[in-house]
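anyone seen this seq b4? input:
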Amino acid sequence: MSEAGGPSRARKPRHRAANRPLPDGVWLGVDVGTVRVGVVACDLDGLLAVSMGTLRRDVSDNSDLARLAELVVERRAVAVVVGLPKTLSGEEGLAATQARHYARLLSDRIAPVPVRLIDERLTTAAAHRRMAERGLSSRARRGLVDQEAAVQILQHALDARRAAPGAPGAGGPTEDR
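predicted toks r here
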């Protein structure tokens, strides 16, 4: 059900903040998986996304969300970008619904720091390919793929922002949660 009580539809941003550029400073990037959550941060100038590690996804206690909230404070993050896994056709399936839910939970914990969703199609596949090119076995990639995907999500947002300074925050289809 939607907030108005009617049938469910894709949520629109809660407010017009999705049209405002994200602030300058440290951004965190998050790739949400069912087992792991990849976490990255950028430098103060917003030039380079660097892996911070992987958290174990904890759906019972949400300790991963608590740790992300701690990282926002520790890093003095001004924004968080969460990957939204759409299908190749641009549709949203179960994984996108779960990412939206995760972004809402995170947003509630770190407000007023904005949480922005950004299309992350193919980042996990690209992460696997890059690690395979580096010679990592599929077993070795398992624990690192979420970090690599998070790097790609945040780096894309940073690059798009620099390429289109007048465009909304991460440039491209984004939403605040």
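The radius of gyration is 16 Å. The helical segments are 63-75, 94-110, 123-133, 138-142, 145-163. kinda curious what u guys think
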